[in-house]
């Protein structure tokens, strides 16, 4: 029936949090077959996973902390709170699934995801650790996300169809909004501004920090300049810090010099 304080809706019809949608997928996979889900992921994304043997799915997997506890706290703890949205555990492969619903993947997160692959390989000794992105079919991945996930991306819409047109998974696909209020920016960013507007802001005397993975000398920003993509790319921007908030940030003056503005 719904609740009056939610305008007659249920919470499942209101929430936009990907954790809610991930737990729904977790429930559906376990109710059906984890092994069948592994087969689906392998075939859908052409991963050619080794499918024999036992499979398990995990939700909100605090991998580093719990493995550290299991091993008697004898090693350096890589990251005590780092959590994977979903994980497929097989005997010879782990598939890490990182999800977005209302928002988008940001550059800092993407760099973290890449480091996770190397770290999980190191800790487990597995040669195969795969990374999969889960997001709305309405979301067009930017360069950073494409470099991170490649073709290993599945949508909520695809999964909804797999699980009998599940209403909640369909809703997960529809809540995406590419707006400031719902986008997932880096923790150091106040907003995003496209490059040509940054040049105009500099001409008007604005002072701020511009963010791009790798900084002003990083390959991504150099490629932006080389291709002219900088004009329309939406850069993370920090307008409050007195110094660069991370190694990925550089001054607006440096940005303008680099693009020849």
How does this structure look, described?
Helix 6 (156-162) runs antiparallel to helix 7 (167-174). The protein is globular and about 60 Å long. Helix 5 (143-149) links the parallel strand 4 and strand 5 (153-155). It has helices at 18-32, 34-44, 63-70, 107-124, 143-149, 156-162, 167-174, 195-203, 219-227, 252-259; strands spanning 55-61, 84-90, 93-99, 128-135, 153-155, 191-194, 209-211, 234-238, 249-251. The chain contains 10 helices and 9 strands. The protein has 261 residues and is α+β, with helices and mostly antiparallel strands. It has a 5-stranded mixed beta sheet with strand order 1-2-3-4-5, sandwiched between helices. The protein folds into 2 domains: 4-174, 3-Layer(aba) Sandwich (Trna Endonuclease, Chain: A, domain 1), CATH 3.40.1350; 191-259, no CATH class.
For the structure shown, list the relevant keywords:
261 residues, alpha+beta, Trna Endonuclease, Chain: A, domain 1, five-stranded mixed β-sheet, four-stranded antiparallel β-sheet, 10 helices, 18% strand, globular
């Amino acid at each position: 029936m719904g609740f009056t304080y939610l305008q007659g809706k249920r919470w499942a019809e209101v929430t936009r949090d990907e954790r809610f949608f991930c737990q729904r997928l977790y429930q559906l996979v376990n109710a059906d077959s984890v092994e069948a889900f592994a087969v689906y992921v392998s075939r859908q994304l052409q991963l050619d996973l080794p499918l024999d043997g036992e499979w398990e799915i995990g939700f909100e997997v605090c991998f580093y902390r719990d493995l550290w506890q299991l091993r008697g706290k004898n090693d350096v703890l890589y990251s005590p709170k780092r959590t994977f949205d979903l994980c497929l555990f097989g005997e010879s492969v782990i598939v890490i699934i990182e999800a977005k619903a209302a928002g988008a993947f940001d550059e800092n997160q993407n760099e973290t995801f890449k480091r996770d692959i190397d770290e999980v390989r190191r800790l487990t000794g597995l040669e195969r650790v795969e990374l999969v992105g889960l997001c709305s079919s309405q979301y067009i991945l930017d360069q950073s996300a494409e470099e991170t996930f490649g073709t290993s991306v599945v949508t909520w819409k695809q999964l909804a169809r797999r699980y009998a047109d599940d209403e909640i998974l369909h809703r997960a696909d529809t809540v995406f909004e590419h707006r400031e209020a719902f986008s997932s920016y880096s923790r150091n960013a106040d907003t995003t501004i496209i490059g040509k507007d940054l040049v105009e802001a500099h001409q008007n005397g604005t002072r701020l920090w511009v963010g791009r993975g790798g900084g002003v000398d990083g390959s991504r920003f150099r490629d932006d300049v080389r291709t002219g993509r900088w004009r329309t790319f939406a850069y993370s921007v920090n307008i409050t810090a007195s110094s660069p908030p991370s190694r990925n940030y550089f001054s607006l003056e440096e940005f303008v010099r680099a693009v020849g503005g």
